[in-house]
Design goal:
This protein is about 35% helix and about 15% strand. It is an alpha+beta fold and about 850 residues long.
């Protein structure tokens, strides 16, 4: 008789537990146990519980290789879902086996789990293990389908859509609690007030190219382009004494921001008024004082009498409006390219290919899965709530969703594999030695830490190049990324999805996820939080294919061929290390750099307008304050755009170097998992020490959230040499307690964005009647708006239906970390309850300024 000690861990998220019966079968090299019910007196498998059981077998089963969990009906009780974290079994000889699950079981079914040791196909010799990994991949490919998103853009996952759940308690404000231990807990500028105070300054305008939310666009200029005929006489007064334009070009002090990718995209009408668009060029000079200063702006790609070059010596309002047009162009280059395309969409392609081609036992799956956490959930929610026809994004951008998509199509057609390799990007743009470029310094430090971590893990599992080239699952993963990521416009295959497992519904773009009805996915295949909501119908933009079918091939991609140099096969260990580092960096630090500061830089709308109501100036000396104000977006467009940006800035926090799930159990990768957080802590310490001396600290790439960075006395001189056992890691690693937006339980959690509002006189937890409380700050003046529906409804007196998916109440948030007690500018709150005697909003007091 052999006795096995069994521990079963249930997830800690809400409703992870179950009352269904759970039985266990163990399979070893010397036999298989019979199915045994795991049952105690009292409640089993409660949320957050680690239940222990004793299982006896007739004989020793030898080395355990697979277990099966059987979920069956318990008495007369209705079935309910169960989220299993892992199963740990102590064999008679004392060896402990770990079986990671980290997935849901919904129905009455059987889930087979492998022991956690990372193995490639070449490492498996037992037929049962080879068949298990083949069956796992076959089942995941049968469920996870690709679908065309927009012709010319990466394809995306075709699964049932997320639909916002009903509020469990409509009287309880959502998301008003204290910030968690993440980015939102940091108290550091630039604050919205700082931006509102300095946005019109040339030095701050130039600073944002280096350390703002879109720091990857600026290039060193060695020759003034013909389309931008700036002369020395024009800019000499702004270069300093004893120099000239040609001398500064030769010194490498002239930089160019070229928005040619926006040229020729038509604008739309918003709220009854035609919007306008341009593709400007901006020339900047890096002076001896360390400031990046704009010295010339042209609002067209074609020079001529109707396209004057604006200079700092022009009238105040001419120069300010020219810079605002450049910031408008920044909005699209940031949101469409740097943010949505280069992080969200590309990361989803990496993640979905991983799910479809790599079994859970594969070392690359174990290496990548912590960094792709919630990627599919976040993108699915974004498509359903933000990128839907007639939704918030479509109603807040002068290009509309069609033009927005065209910007991404053009950008991806110019993307090369080398441009994704971070060190090469800085060299190619000529900014590798530019002083004060903290984004570059911090991103390279984080890149180096990730590359060293990836190198340690990869070289452990792939000791030679032959191991890389001979791994069929790895090669299938790379090939699928190439196939589904690169637009078919570049690969010469047309715009439609190919046959096989891909969805054939390519007639719509920016869709919800699946048309019609679709069965729920096999629960054993679900990653954490990927829970379906049943049948949905698409609301999408059928017109997109008419405008997105013609991508512009840029010279960088053409130089590398139509495939942009992207590999279809990896042959060496260094190639694999580079490829995996690109994937992890894209899914983590790269996204943090362009996402974290969105609200700080955009809360003051003139610094980041999403639309312009008047055409670009065609002559100098005509701009007045009234014309400037009339060119900016109206209040309704502003509020809608800020709601979108606020929502985007509230993504679930996924700290880099945090491993909430135990996938690796071998000593070598566990040692690397211990070392990576230490390296990141050192980087965080260096960043915070540097920031103490900066007027505007740059912390978006600080890899350690909250106050967890090393103090001066805590800086390690060498990485720790002690390696904790994976058993102790299981005991000591806390589960991530995400907020309602985490996506870990989409069926049972409300995901309701909240908009901060504070005119300096609001009380915490304020709710008020829309007739009284809705307000905004326009150029420093508080305006009380009498009827919210006139601002947010499609017509006077009508409710704005597009806001309803976000919940029936968008509460004004007060006291959120660094946001506390600050008059956030150009923001709007959307309370739903009546004002009471304690209400202190300006409208309730009768303030009509």
């Amino acid at each position: 008789m052999a006795t096995y000690k069994v521990k079963v861990a249930t997830g800690t998220d809400f409703l992870s537990g179950t009352v269904d019966s759970i039985s266990l079968t163990m399979v070893g090299t010397q036999g298989e146990s019979h199915k045994q019910l795991l049952n105690h007196f009292g409640r089993d498998f409660a949320t957050g519980a680690v239940d222990e059981y004793t299982v006896r077998c007739q004989q020793d089963l030898g080395e355990l290789i697979i277990i099966r969990l059987h979920k069956e009906r318990h008495s007369f009780l209705p079935k309910n879902s169960w989220y299993c974290n892992y199963v740990q079994i102590c064999a008679p000889g004392g060896r402990v086996y770990h079986f990671p699950a980290y997935q849901w079981m919904d129905g009455y079914e059987t889930l087979a789990l492998r022991e956690a040791t990372g193995k490639t196909t070449a490492d498996d010799t037992l037929p049962i293990l080879l068949e298990h990994r083949r069956e796992e991949i076959r089942a995941k490919q049968d469920f996870y389908h690709w679908r065309v998103f927009v012709p010319g853009l990466p394809n995306y996952v075709h699964i049932p859509s997320y639909r916002p759940p009903a509020r469990r308690n409509p009287n309880r404000p959502e998301g008003a609690g204290p910030p968690g231990p993440g980015r939102d807990a940091l108290a550091a500028p630039p604050s919205p007030e700082y931006v509102a105070e300095h946005w019109a300054e040339d030095s701050f305008f130039g600073y944002q190219y280096l350390n703002g939310i879109n720091p990857g666009l600026l290039r060193r200029c060695t020759r003034i382009p013909d389309k931008f005929p700036v002369t020395d006489d024009m800019v000499a007064p702004f270069l300093g004494e004893g120099t000239c334009l040609q001398a500064e070009l030769e010194k490498g002090n002239i930089y160019l921001a070229d928005y040619r990718i926006l040229e020729g995209i038509p604008s739309i009408e918003l709220h009854g008024r035609k919007q306008h668009h341009c593709a400007p060029l901006c020339l900047l000079h890096f002076g001896p004082d360390g400031n990046m200063m704009p010295i010339a702006i042209q609002l067209s790609q074609t020079p001529g009498p109707d396209s004057p070059i604006f200079l700092p010596s022009d009238s105040e309002w001419d120069w300010l409006l020219a810079k605002t047009w450049v910031r408008y162009a920044e909005f699209y280059c940031h949101e469409a390219i740097s943010h949505l395309l280069e992080t969200h969409l590309i990361a989803e392609a990496f993640c979905l290919a991983m799910l479809r081609q790599l079994p859970m036992c594969h070392p690359l799956y174990k290496l990548l899965v912590p960094h792709t956490r919630y990627t599919i959930q976040i993108n699915s929610i974004g498509r359903a709530l933000l990128l839907n026809e007639g939704g918030l994004s479509a109603r807040g951008m002068s290009l509309g969703l069609e033009g927005f998509a065209e910007v991404m199509v053009r950008a991806l057609s110019e993307t090369t594999y080398e441009s994704l390799y971070l060190p090469n990007d800085f060299v190619e743009r000529g900014v590798q030695d530019l002083p004060g470029y903290y984004y570059r310094d911090d991103s390279l430090a984080v890149w180096d830490a990730l590359e060293r971590y990836v190198t340690e893990v990869i070289t452990y599992y792939y000791p030679c190049d032959a191991a890389v080239e001979g791994d069929p699952e790895l090669q299938s993963w790379v090939q699928e990324i190439f196939k589904q990521w690169l637009p078919r416009l570049r690969r010469g295959g047309g715009c439609c999805a190919e046959s096989g497992k891909e969805s054939q519904d390519s007639s719509k773009a920016f869709p919800l996820l699946s048309p019609g009805t679709r069965e729920s996915p096999p629960p054993q295949l679900r990653e954490r939080g990927e829970r379906s909501e049943g049948p949905t119908s698409d609301r999408c933009l059928e017109r997109l294919q008419r405008t997105c079918g013609q991508g512009q091939l840029g010279s960088p991609a053409q130089a590398c061929g139509l495939d942009g140099g992207f590999p279809q096969r990896l042959r060496t260990v260094p190639e694999l290390i580079r490829y995996v580092t690109i994937v992890i960096y894209t899914c983590s630090a790269k996204h943090a750099a362009v996402n974290t500061g969105q609200l700080e830089y955009t809360a003051w709308m003139p610094n980041f307008p999403s639309s312009m109501r008047n055409p670009p100036m065609q002559a100098k000396g005509l701009t007045t304050r009234e014309i400037y104000m009339d060119t900016l977006p109206d209040v309704k467009t502003t509020c809608i755009t800020l709601l979108v940006l606020w929502t985007l800035s509230r993504e679930p926090d996924r700290p880099l170097g945090h491993f909430p799930d135990i996938h690796f159990v071998e000593e070598a990768p566990r040692r690397s998992m211990e070392t990576l957080p230490q390296r990141l802590a050192q980087i965080s310490h260096n960043i915070r020490q540097r920031n103490k001396g900066l007027p505007v600290p740059y912390y978006y790439l600080d890899p350690v959230p909250g106050q967890e960075a090393l103090e001066d006395s805590d800086v390690p001189t060498t990485p720790g040499s002690s390696v904790k056992s994976w058993e102790s890691l299981i005991a000591e690693t806390p589960e991530v307690h995400m907020g309602p937006a985490c996506g870990s339980d989409l069926r049972d959690s409300s995901w309701v964005p909240v908009v901060p509002i504070d005119t300096g006189d609001f009380s915490a937890g304020h709710t008020g009647d829309p007739e009284h409380v809705v307000c905004t700050v326009v150029m420093g003046k508080i305006l009380s708006l009498s009827v919210v529906s006139q601002l947010l409804g499609p017509e006077e007196g009508a409710e704005d239906a597009s806001l309803r998916p976000f919940g029936d109440q968008l509460q004004a948030l007060h006291g959120n970390g660094s946001q506390a007690s600050r008059p956030l500018t150009w923001l709007m709150g959307f309370p739903s309850a009546k004002c009471g005697p304690a209400c202190r909003c300006p409208g309730y007091r009768g303030n009509e300024e």
